[in-house]
């Protein structure tokens, strides 16, 4: 056993508890921008802990989505669950910083709440929001998570997932879709295809009867979706005709964020969703 694994004892056990926290922090700090993917053995060697200790820490972090496994290598990387517990660090999130002025413009253009959402694999998470000036408006706390299949931002992110992954998420209940059957699953996949073709997703009172949401994807330099721009508004203010203009405005804003990130739109995508 290394010295890092041997907890010192005290009358009230505080030192032992502190040692556990120090070990957990050491594991998190082993990930770097140059080496974002690490295996258990690599981490153990870096922090001077036994592999079994590192494995237990990572298992707990994985449950809380603080780390996640790479699907191909099964090594670990930091996860978006950190956002939920590190609010002050949101200012350092590149997508959030870059998107902020665009969200301001979008709010002024549409009069409705604008937001930036990111995906952690099973949830859409709010990392930035600029509320509408209207007295009646829809807002959400930073860090709020959405798992409803009809959520506009969830639709955007699922539209980029393989069909079998979408099926697995819906069947497991990780993405909620009450009363889902095979016909409904097929219909939902068609809906996701429409999102990809149109360039933006619609939630017209389907997850909340009095709320409308439209969302559009933000791409990185590889052409991968890294975020979604969202507009949310009370349903009574959004006619079917206005829904189209909101969707186009949202897609155009997402296109501007993509450009500011140095991102690349897929050839089939048009910033205005045409």
Explain this structure to me?
This protein has helices at 14-29, 40-47, 51-63, 81-85, 94-110, 152-158, 163-172, 182-198, 240-260, and strands at residues 67-69, 76-78, 113-119, 124-130, 145-146, 201-204, 211-219, 225-234. The protein is of the alpha+beta class and 274 residues long. A six-stranded antiparallel β-sheet has the order 5-4-3-8-7-6, sandwiched between helices. A two-stranded antiparallel sheet has the order 1-2. The longest helix is centred in the last third of the chain and has 21 residues, at 240-260. The chain starts with 13 loop residues before the first helix and ends in a 14-residue tail after the last helix. Mean pLDDT is 87; it is low at 1-12 and 269-274.
Topology overview:
Blueprint: H1 14-29, H2 40-47, H3 51-63, E1 67-69, E2 76-78, H4 81-85, H5 94-110, E3 113-119, E4 124-130, E5 145-146, H6 152-158, H7 163-172, H8 182-198, E6 201-204, E7 211-219, E8 225-234, H9 240-260
Antiparallel strand pairs: 1-2, 3-4, 3-8, 4-5, 6-7, 7-8
Helix pairs in contact: 2-3, 5-9
Summary of the model, kept short:
By secondary structure, this protein is α+β, with helices and mostly antiparallel strands. Helices cover 42% and strands 16% of the residues. It has nine helices and eight strands.
């Amino acid at each position: 056993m290394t010295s890092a694994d041997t907890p010192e004892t005290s009358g009230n056990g505080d030192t032992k508890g502190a040692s556990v926290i120090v070990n957990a922090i050491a594991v998190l700090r082993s990930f770097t921008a140059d080496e974002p993917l690490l295996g258990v053995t690599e981490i153990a060697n870096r922090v001077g802990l036994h592999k079994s200790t590192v494995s237990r820490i990572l298992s707990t972090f994985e449950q809380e989505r603080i780390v996640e496994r790479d699907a191909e290598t099964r090594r670990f990387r930091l996860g978006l669950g950190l956002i939920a517990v590190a609010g002050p660090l949101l200012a350092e999130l590149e997508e959030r910083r870059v998107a902020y002025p665009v969200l301001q413009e979008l709010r002024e253009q549409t009069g409705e709440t604008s937001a930036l959402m990111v995906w952690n694999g099973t949830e859409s998470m709010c990392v930035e929001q600029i509320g509408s000036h209207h007295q009646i408006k829809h807002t959400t706390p930073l860090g709020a998570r959405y798992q409803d299949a009809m959520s506009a931002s969830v639709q955007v992110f699922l539209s980029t997932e393989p069909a079998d992954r979408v099926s697995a998420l819906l069947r497991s209940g990780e993405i909620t879709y009450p009363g889902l059957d095979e016909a409904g699953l097929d219909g939902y996949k068609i809906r996701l295809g429409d999102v990809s073709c149109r360039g933006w997703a619609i939630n017209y009172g389907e997850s909340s009867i009095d709320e409308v949401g439209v969302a559009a994807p933000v791409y990185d330099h590889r052409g991968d979706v890294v975020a979604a721009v969202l507009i949310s508004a009370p349903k009574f203010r959004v006619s079917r005709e206005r829904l189209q203009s909101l969707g186009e405005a949202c897609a155009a804003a997402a296109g501007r964020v993509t450009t500011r990130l140095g991102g690349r739109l897929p050839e089939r995508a048009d910033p205005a969703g045409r």
